[in-house]
Amino acid sequence: MSGCRKHTRDSRKGHSSTKSTEIYLHADLALKEQALARTAPTSAARRRYRPPDKLLGFLESL
Fold first, then answer.
1. Spatial separation of the C-alpha atoms in residues 49 and 57, rounded to whole Å
2. Which of 5, 9, 18, 54 could make a disulfide contact with 1, Cβ separation 3.0–4.6 Å?
3. Going residue by residue through the chain (62 aa), what tens digit of pLDDT does each one get?
């Protein structure tokens, strides 16, 4: 949402006040980099999610 007004951006994200997003403006970039470095991809094979029949039945009944 680059280039849009801060109030518009925050309200679209569900924030009731722009004050609740001020912490993101002052977040430490080095801390963000450290957090991202710890999120290495897993070695698990990617598979498509197959919902169980019970869940599909419930959703179809809505």
1. 16
2. 9
3. 455 565 555 555 566 676 776 777 777 888 888 888 888 777 777 788 999 999 999 999 99
CA 33 to chain CA mean position, Å:
17
Phi (first) and psi of residue 30, to 5 degrees: -65, -40
Indicate the number of domains in the chain.
1
Domain carrying residue 29 = 1-36
pTM exceeding 0.85: no
Residue 20 domain-assigned (yes or no): yes
Diameter of the chain measured on Cα atoms: 49
Residue 44 maps to a domain: no
